[in-house]
Write a structure and sequence with these properties.
Elements (H helix, E strand, L loop, with lengths): L5 H31 L14 E18 L1 H4 L9 E7 L1 E15 L2 E5 L2 E13 L17 E4 L2 E20 L6 E14 L3 H4 L9 E14 L4 E11 L17 E15 L1
Length: about 270
């Protein structure tokens, strides 16, 4: 049932490519800078401490992963017959938080990185005809949709408190740099109440568990370590609440999960 939309294909790929290009440029410039700024190996950082701390700033691109319902795909008597396709879109945001590190070995650490993230989720619903009368906001709130004829974009903002627990494996230090990989899980909860969320057109629950994987590199400066990092997060819970969503499209969706690409700037 889902038709190919070239513009949306580029949009989704662009959401993934931009952080990767930024990370590659940052890697090249920072690697050269870290190698050449000191004549000797820097002794800064917290490599020998059992417990150490830091903070980070981060920018992310996030989207929903939407799965169509079986009833919507049924060609004989489809659910939501006026809906042609649903396209989640990547949207930027930022977050900030702290780093707590427990050292097991020079190359192995356990990280706890609580943070507050500011998110926006945009979903484009394409209808077969101008469905203005069918897609009016529940509760009369018209500020969350943008009517473009037979295309309507639904927007939702959320502030999430995230509590990731990660295992970090680092390479052997070479001069003032070292690479690392990390992975683990995170618990997230939304600060907005469910009653407030129920006023939106596309309603989701407020709690989620995610799997997180990433890589980065540490650069040792005179008084601190700087660690740019890219991380991928995939939500595990089905967040969708069909009973409270807009009836114009609610039966077309079976599940909604979050997906996020984040670039971190860590200072330790």
């Amino acid at each position: 049932m889902q038709t190919i939309n070239f513009r949306n294909q580029l949009n989704l790929r662009g959401g993934k490519i931009i952080p990767l290009v930024f990370f590659a440029i940052l890697f090249t410039s920072s690697f050269s800078f870290g190698q050449g700024i000191f004549g000797l190996t820097s002794t800064s950082g917290s490599d020998d401490k059992t417990i150490s701390y830091g903070f980070f700033l981060a920018g992310h691109n996030t989207t929903y992963r939407i799965e169509y319902s079986d009833d919507f795909i049924n060609g004989v008597d489809p659910a939501a017959p006026n809906v042609r396709a649903i396209f989640p879109k990547y949207s930027p945001g930022f977050s900030l938080g702290f780093i707590g590190m427990l050292r097991f070995h020079d190359q192995v650490q356990l990280l706890f990185t609580p943070k507050v993230g500011f998110y926006e989720f945009n979903t484009e619903v394409q209808y077969f005809a101008d469905q203005t009368a069918l897609v009016e906001d529940i509760g009369g709130d018209t500020g969350t949709t943008e009517n473009l004829g037979n295309i309507v974009e639904y927007k939702s903002e959320a502030t999430l408190v995230e509590l990731p627990l990660l295992l970090k494996y680092k390479s052997v230090r070479f001069n003032n740099t070292r690479m690392y990989f990390l992975g683990g899980g995170s618990y997230q909860f939304r600060t907005k109440s469910q009653d407030e969320a129920n006023l939106e057109d596309l309603v989701t629950t407020g709690q989620d568990f995610t799997i997180e994987m990433g890589m980065g590199f540490e650069i040792y400066f005179k008084y601190f370590k700087f660690a740019p990092e890219i991380r991928f997060s995939h939500g595990l819970n089905n967040l969708y609440q069909a009973e409270n969503s807009n009836p114009a499209f609610r039966d077309a969706i079976a599940s909604i999960r979050r997906k996020t690409i984040t670039v971190y700037l860590n200072f330790q």
